[in-house]
Write a structure and sequence with these properties.
Blueprint: H1 2-6, E1 9-10, E2 16-17, H2 34-37, E3 43-49, H3 50-63, E4 68-74, H4 84-93, E5 99-103, H5 107-119, E6 123-126
Parallel strand pairs: 3-4, 3-5, 5-6
Antiparallel strand pairs: 1-2
Helix pairs in contact: 4-5
């Protein structure tokens, strides 16, 4: 249902509403869609912290079968803040990659979304929390 809304719809307010998000999967085992969604990408940057990578890193790597990818794993012993330092670390790793995959929610999504917006490189999020 949500993907139908993402495609856009005519509203009773008289306007056509749409969203720049291409696809959303909210279901048990949603990560199973990742292989298909990554088909057109060749060199992927996976961004996570130690905790979120422990939660979904193995399944993400399995879904990237046959793809070139690099990992940027932030230290999980401290709270990751999506500040200039974190942004610079992602930007430093980004050249040569055509997709960012953030594993986590909240902060990780914000960090990847910000870098994606300013670099023009698309991003996916493997959410590890309902936030």
């Amino acid at each position: 249902m949500i993907n139908q809304y993402l495609a856009g719809f005519d509203c009773t307010c008289g306007k056509h509403h749409s969203c720049p998000v291409d696809y959303v999967a909210i279901e048990h085992g949603a990560i199973s869609h990742l292989t298909r969604l990554c088909e057109k990408y060749q060199n992927i940057l996976v961004v996570a912290d130690e905790n979120t990578f422990r939660a979904a890193g193995a399944k993400t790597e399995a879904a990237l079968q046959g793809k070139q990818y690099s990992k940027l794993i932030f230290d999980g012993s401290t709270i990751l803040i999506p500040n200039e330092i974190a942004v610079e670390r992602v930007q430093k790793e980004l050249p040569g990659h055509d997709l960012i995959i953030g594993i986590g929610s909240g902060v990780m999504q914000d960090l990847c979304k910000y870098v994606s917006f300013f670099s023009g490189v698309p991003y996916f999020v493997i959410a590890t929390a309902p936030s």
